[in-house]
Structure to design on (158 residues):
């Protein structure tokens, strides 16, 4: 049986994952509206990943005989000015999610919930990958700054 404190915290994480998908959808729409299709496609794959993360937690709660709960999803920021701003925000957001996964892990340890500690290990590795892939794109953006040529090439690569 899932400890109540753990169940509540996992339900909050489902909401954060869906909110992440909502935020990345907003970013995707900005890129799509500028015909930066490579960036839009990359963001769309993040949207799908976030929904997949929420689903993993959903399934896990059910598997442990818990109850899935639903909360309001906050509106994401919709006004963006540059691709650099978007990737800075994405990195900041992923770092926030990493900190929340670490909090979940601490709760699992405090509750002596070994199964959830094992379950969360996938998310811990996933966050390392996610932060790294966003940082790599941001590094390229910072290297080339805002030349039109470099935006075009990066968009093509994505
Ligand atoms: Fe589900 Fe990008 O963290």
């Amino acid at each position: 049986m899932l400890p109540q404190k753990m169940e509540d915290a996992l339900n909050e994480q489902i909401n954060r994952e869906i909110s992440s998908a909502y935020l990345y959808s907003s970013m995707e729409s900005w890129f799509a509206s500028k015909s930066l299709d490579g960036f839009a496609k990359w963001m769309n794959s993040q949207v799908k990943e976030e929904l997949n993360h929420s689903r993993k937690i959903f399934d896990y709660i059910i598997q442990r005989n818990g109850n899935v709960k639903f909360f309001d999803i906050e509106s994401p920021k919709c006004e963006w000015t540059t691709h650099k701003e978007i990737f800075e925000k994405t990195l900041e957001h992923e770092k926030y999610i990493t900190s929340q996964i670490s909090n979940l892990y601490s709760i699992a340890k405090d509750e002596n919930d070994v199964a959830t500690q094992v379950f969360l290990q996938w998310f811990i590795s996933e966050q390392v990958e996610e932060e790294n892939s966003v940082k790599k794109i941001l590094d390229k953006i910072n290297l080339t700054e805002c030349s039109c040529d470099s935006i075009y090439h990066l968009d093509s690569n994505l």
In short: The first helix runs from residue 4 to 33. The two ends are 43 Å apart (CA to CA). The chain has a mean pLDDT of 95.
